[in-house]
Design goal:
Elements lengths: L20 H8 L3 E5 L2 E4 L1 H20 L3 E2 L5 E3 H7 L1 H5 L4 E4 L5 E4 L4 H11 L10 E8 L14 E11 L2 H21 L4 E5 L10 E7 L5 E5 L6 E3 L5 E2 L12 E4 L6 H8 L7 E8 L2 E8 L6 H8 L4 E3 L2 H6 L16 E5 L8 E7 L2 E6 L9 E3 L9 E2 L7 E15 L1 H6 L2 E3 L5 E3 L1 E8 H11 L1 E2 L2 E2 L10 E5 L7 H14 L4 E4 L5 H11 L3 E5 L1 H5 L2 E6 L4 E6 L3 H8 L3
Parallel strand pairs: 3-7, 16-18, 18-21, 29-30, 29-31
Antiparallel strand pairs: 1-2, 4-6, 5-6, 7-8, 8-26, 9-10, 10-23, 11-12, 11-23, 13-22, 14-20, 15-16, 15-17, 19-20, 23-26, 24-25, 27-28, 31-32, 32-33
Helix pairs in contact: 1-11, 2-6, 2-11
The protein binds one RNA strand through strand 8, strand 23, strand 26, helix 11 and helix 13.
RNA sequence: CGGGGUGUAGCGCAGGGGAAGCGCGCAUGGUUUGGGACCAUGAGGUCGCCGGUUCAAAUCCGGCCACCCCGACCA
């Protein structure tokens, strides 16, 4: 490709709106064009990269037994109501109507449709395992698109669905996919880490996220340096400190004028926060829930949501709290009426806690579970804190940020049962197909690759996904012999099967070098009058910016040898 | 949806009741040519939108919209 004919220009100044590295690099390099919030066009260079990533994904999916299909973006809303996920996705689901007023939606993912296909095309245990997949546009009306391609409303995703006769079969398919994913990340230059994950709106049991550790990431993950355990926040637990016990004492009311916070309460009474119990109020699908946790800990909303099997969970409003007869700041599990109560297991690690009295400016000393109050459930719903001990090995846990570049789920029989995808086993019995689903966001992978592979000058593409292999910088093209030599080099590189971006623009050397650094193509060949005097080209490795001279006649094999593709 | 911010030329920004500006980029001509060159000339605007105040609004007032950032959600 001759740069003089490229649709798309690099910028000299960065658009002010861009904050994240990949977003800035993409805009500056002229790779993407924003159409609206979270909706982008891809310019030629980005599209080449995306196509390369897709090729890698296809190769790995096919090698693992996948078969490519393509499903529609437009789907009847009814299908989503049947599976129950219309409400699970809520406002994230784009909804529309056809001319007859029939409700439709734009697919945020494709479990429903693939399961429907399985109903017609899988009837016997002999028809499995199967692994159909597609690389296709997903639409999600995200509440907050952000960071360029990191989180968008329209994006391409590879989604594969496994169909097996039983759990053991699913385990095999799942492991194959995990391995295929590892291969994909390695080839894209991304050291992604598999972490245990929550299954979210997709539903399902076991689940792993593939995370690229990055400061700019929007996910937090918990890691143990000791045993290698890694999980996302809603899936991880830390060892909670056991508080010294003094033996149960009788309940005692104490006046606490003006005390509204745990910190204030602990100071007022003269105990550590870990000797208090905190009350938090949620509304889960319309029902008020009273949550108790030790004062030094925080509730993890997702853990609570999963425990309650709630689709909509939020903090209760002040009005709801009041209406439930609770006194904010002094609410108490003791005398809470018939409100559902969920407790974190930390309330058993110690005794004689300070709690609210459910009266203004009053608290109770020496509250003990279960002597003084009951809970409908007592389990771990606490947010992990860095430094807490690992529940496996005791080493202090660390919390780091990361980018989720893939997610795999063991769905089980949720979709096959709700949509009626059954097969006959060897004994002629009807059984639900056991499913898994496996997703990778292609654009996010590209963005993550940039986050991971760049320097202060620009992108440093991992070779297998670089938009081109070689960048020819031809300087002073109007000097005798330069254009001829550069053209010839361009032709012979292409003849050797190398993808070349040829900067044949009438621009100054500085502009060309800066654009070459920005675009990040692995090998740069500089053709100039100075170099041609020695019948040579200068070869620059983009990753190190090291330069060396090579005879012009040998440029093609030299460039080839530098590429690991 | 809660909080914060920004909308003026393709990009980056200034201006803040009385003639629409600057830098970069773009076009033409000339001089340059190994790390974002220089000179000259020129083109390019619904000052986000609607309404109000005023003799006069990019500027003041009201409403709306869009986009960005922080949170809750996801590939």
């Amino acid at each position: 490709m001759r740069l003089s004919r490229m649709f798309g220009k690099t910028l000299r100044s960065e658009p002010a709106e861009a904050e994240s590295i990949s977003h800035r690099l993409m805009l500056k390099a002229g790779m993407v064009h924003q159409v609206s919030a979270g909706v982008y066009s891809y310019m030629p260079i980005a599209w080449r990269v995306l196509r390369k990533i897709e090729s890698i994904i296809r190769e790995e999916m096919n090698a693992a037994g996948g078969q490519e299909v393509k499903m529609p973006v437009i789907q009847p809303l009814e299908l989503w109501e049947t599976s129950g996920r219309a409400s699970a996705f809520g406002d994230n689901l784009f909804k529309l109507q056809d001319r007859r007023g029939r409700p439709l939606c734009l697919a945020p993912t494709h479990e429903e449709v693939i399961t429907q296909m399985a109903v017609q095309h899988i009837h016997s245990y002999k028809d499995m395992p199967r692994m159909p997949y597609q690389i296709q546009t997903k639409l999600r009306d995200e509440p907050r698109p952000r960071a360029g391609l990191m989180r968008v409303r329209e994006f391409d995703m590879k989604d594969l669905y496994s169909m097996d006769v039983d759990q053991a079969g699913l385990d095999v398919s799942y492991d194959k996919m995990v391995q295929a994913y590892r291969n994909i990340y390695r080839r894209c230059g991304l050291p992604a880490l598999a972490v245990e994950a929550d299954s979210g709106a997709i539903g399902g049991k076991d689940s792993h996220e593939f995370i690229l550790i990055a400061e700019s990431g929007e996910d937090q993950i918990v890691q143990c340096p000791g045993c290698g355990f890694a999980a996302n926040m809603e899936r991880a637990s830390g060892v909670k400190s056991d508080q010294p016990r003094t033996g149960p004492l009788p309940l005692e009311e104490v006046a606490t004028p003006g005390v509204k916070t745990i910190k204030g309460l602990a100071e007022f009474v003269g105990v550590p926060e870990s000797k208090t119990l905190k009350a938090v109020f949620y509304t889960a699908d319309g029902e008020m829930v009273f949550v108790v946790i030790r004062g030094d800990l925080e509730v993890n909303d997702v853990k609570l949501k999963n425990l309650l099997h709630a689709t909509d969970l939020r903090l209760a409003t002040d009005e709801e709290v009041k209406a439930a007869g609770l006194v904010a700041g002094s609410a108490s599990p003791i005398g809470r009426g018939d409100l559902k109560c969920i407790a974190d297991d930390s309330i058993e690690l110690g005794d004689n806690f300070v709690v609210g009295a459910n009266k203004p400016d009053t608290h109770l000393l020496n509250a003990n579970y279960p002597r003084d109050f009951r809970a409908d459930a007592i389990t771990d719903i606490a947010e992990v804190e860095a430094g807490q001990g690992c529940t496996n090995c005791g080493q202090p846990l660390s919390i780091t940020r990361g980018i989720e570049v893939g997610h795999v789920f063991k769905l089980g029989t949720f979709f096959s049962e709700s949509l009626g995808a059954y097969y006959s086993d060897q004994d002629g019995r009807q059984k639900p197909i056991v499913m898994g689903c496996y997703g990778i966001g292609v654009g996010r992978l590209m963005a993550a690759a940039m986050e991971q592979n760049h320097d202060e000058h620009g992108i440093v593409w991992p070779h297998p996904i670089a938009p081109y292999h070689v960048h020819i910088c031809a300087l002073s093209l109007d000097r005798p012999g330069v254009a001829e030599a550069a053209d010839q080099l361009y032709d012979s590189l292409q003849a050797a099967g190398i993808e070349v971006l040829y900067d044949d623009r009438d621009e100054s050397p500085g502009v060309k070098f800066n654009d070459a650094d920005l675009l990040g193509i692995p090998v740069r060949l500089t053709v100039s009058p100075r170099n041609l005097k020695q019948d040579a080209v200068e070869i620059t490795d983009r990753s190190t910016l090291e330069k060396r001279m090579a005879p012009l006649s040998n440029a093609v094999p030299e460039a080839q040898s530098m590429l690991s593709i």
